[in-house]
Amino acid sequence: MAKATLTLLLLLLSFASEIFTITNGQKTWCVAKPSTDQATLLANLDFACSHVDCRILKGGCPCSSPDNLMNHASIAMNLYYQAKGRNQWNCDFRCSGLIVMTNPSYGDCIYA
């Protein structure tokens, strides 16, 4: 019994280690899920910007355009995600965040 338990534990640790390596070995970003409603986007924007510097969203800055809630919330959510350590839970935002492995930067707006 003890040998079977040890084997199972080693197998689980091996699997967990592989997942950790895949996500931590590659740069990731946090964006808002496309299905997120406007109220949640606004709450996410307010929350993230109360913890990180969101001046990059101000008018005239590279990430101020397009000037819509989905864009601004995604940038703020990513700023928070990056600043807090790029952990899965730092992109949850009540299940409205999405971790992506494709860089969402565009034009002069560079996602950190």
Label this structure with key terms.
two-stranded antiparallel ribbon; mainly alpha; 7% strand; 112 residues
What can you tell me about this protein's structure?
The protein is mainly alpha-helical and 112 residues long. The protein is 45% helix and 7% strand. The chain has a two-stranded antiparallel sheet with strand order 1-2.
Got a strand count?
2
Q: How much helix is in the residues?
A: 40-55%
What order do the strands of the largest sheet run in, or round the barrel if closed? 1-2
Question: Which regions are unreliable across 5 or more consecutive residues at pLDDT < 50?
Answer: 4-22
Number of helices: 3
Secondary-structure-derived class? mainly alpha
**In whole angstroms, how far apart are the ends?**
49 Å
Oligomer: single chain
Element-level helix/strand string:
HEHHE
Shape: globular
**Rg, please?**
18 Å
Sheet-strand content, in percent, reads 5-15%
- Mean residue pLDDT: 86
Sheet with the most strands? 2 strands, antiparallel
How are the secondary structure elements laid out?
Elements: H1 2-24, E1 29-32, H2 38-49, H3 69-83, E2 97-100
Antiparallel strand pairs: 1-2
Helix pairs in contact: 2-3
Structure summarized in a few sentences:
The chain contains three helices and two strands, in the order H-E-H-H-E.
